Amino acid sequence: MKPGASEAVALRFSSAEARTVTWKLDLPDGVTASPAEGTVTVPAGGSASAEVTLTGVSEGVHSVVVSGAGVLDRALPVRVTDGDGTPRALTANFSGASVSSIDLSSGRSTEIAVGANPGEVVTSADGRTAYAANQGSNSVSVIDVARGEVTATVAVGRVPAGLALTPDGGTLWVANYTDGTVQPVDTGTLEAGATVAVGAGPENMAITPDGRRLYVANIHDNTVSPVDLGTRRAGAAIPVGPRPFNVVAAPDGKTVYVSNSGGSTVTPIDTASNDTGPTLLVSGQAYGLGLSPDGRTLWVSPSTGDYVTPVDTVTGAPGKQITVGRSAFDVGLDWDGGTAYVTTADGNRLVPVDTCSGTAGTPLTTGAYPLAVALTPVPVR
């Protein structure tokens, strides 16, 4: 929807037993709803619905979480955009010293020169700015996505491996792998702040949707460090599986998931207690990690294999593996979860996967050895 526009959405509830369901919407900045809560009576073995009017306020993709008594939390992605431009995918090409900006409408790819060995890329909520972590030059490149140009370079710590943007877009957090630290960069001034010590070999990170905590995967000591972004202090390290590499946060903020690249497991962490839950099992290595916008499906890639595996976050059951190509490294989901994009590092390709049918589409060309992918939340002019 466009900013200021409204759209009616039906919330449907089903149950094996007759019950009264009290629901509410947890609304982020950027979207409003009427009503924001209510009650429905669900017949045994049937369903009931409630109509909600959503209104877009600011551009971007906003996650509206449906929760309440008798409700299995589920997120509803809402995209607010003026509709101009095209959706883009950006890949960090480790051996190419470049970021590929791929127009997903035409398939045309533009190479943007960045620093040495970029291993991670993230985009802003409006899709107009991207950031690439250059492991070989200890810097972060700031990219104007529409123009396909680097507009600034920020010096950070040694071997920046992971990036995470706060929900308000005001701070970019950088994981400095060799230093064992994370570091904030003010996205307005592009000044790097004081570092925060975490574990050994910090890799990828995720910030909870409320912007309060950062979770950092420490690959060398098999832990995750929770960092309070208010005090900028790291809490007690959380033991996880072998060689944790990637982290994603659930839309409701209650869980973060950690891929253990030294094994075949994904570890859920309860963000209220920082306790770990029962591990989720996959076949092969658990390396790249992507989460569907509704929070129901994890997509796990092995880096050493040629497939991607969907995992149900409620049951923990893995689905059918989907062949994409050699060295399936990273996974990114589009705004509504209809397509998963997988980087195949040895093939220099980005492979779209239809998440409904479980079929791989025509590969898109990237630069050399794409290690990471990010999707612009909205079309970019």
Plain-language structure description:
The chain is globular, with a radius of gyration of 20 Å. It has no helices and 37 strands. Helix content is 0%, strand content 54%. Strands 19, 20, 21, 22 and 23 form a 5-stranded antiparallel sheet that branches. Strands 32, 33, 34, 35 and 36 form a 5-stranded antiparallel sheet that branches. The chain has a 4-stranded antiparallel sheet with strand order 4-2-6-7, with no helix packed on it. The two termini are 17 Å apart. It has strands at 6-15, 19-26, 31-34, 37-42, 46-56, 60-69, 74-80, 88-93, 98-103, 109-113, 118-123, 129-134, 139-144, 149-155, 160-165, 171-176, 181-186, 196-197, 202-207, 213-218, 223-228, 233-234, 238-239, 244-249, 255-260, 265-270, 280-281, 288-291, 297-301, 307-312, 322-323, 328-333, 339-344, 349-354, 359-360, 364-365, 370-375. The model has no long low-confidence stretch (mean pLDDT 96). Strand 28 and strand 29 form a beta hairpin. It is mostly beta strands and 381 residues long.
Give the tags:
381 residues; globular; five-stranded antiparallel sheet
Element layout with pairings:
Layout: E1 6-15, E2 19-26, E3 31-34, E4 37-42, E5 46-56, E6 60-69, E7 74-80, E8 88-93, E9 98-103, E10 109-113, E11 118-123, E12 129-134, E13 139-144, E14 149-155, E15 160-165, E16 171-176, E17 181-186, E18 196-197, E19 202-207, E20 213-218, E21 223-228, E22 233-234, E23 238-239, E24 244-249, E25 255-260, E26 265-270, E27 280-281, E28 288-291, E29 297-301, E30 307-312, E31 322-323, E32 328-333, E33 339-344, E34 349-354, E35 359-360, E36 364-365, E37 370-375
Antiparallel strand pairs: 1-5, 2-4, 2-6, 3-5, 6-7, 8-9, 8-37, 9-10, 11-12, 12-13, 13-14, 15-16, 16-17, 17-18, 19-20, 20-21, 21-22, 21-23, 24-25, 25-26, 26-27, 28-29, 29-30, 30-31, 32-33, 33-34, 34-35, 34-36
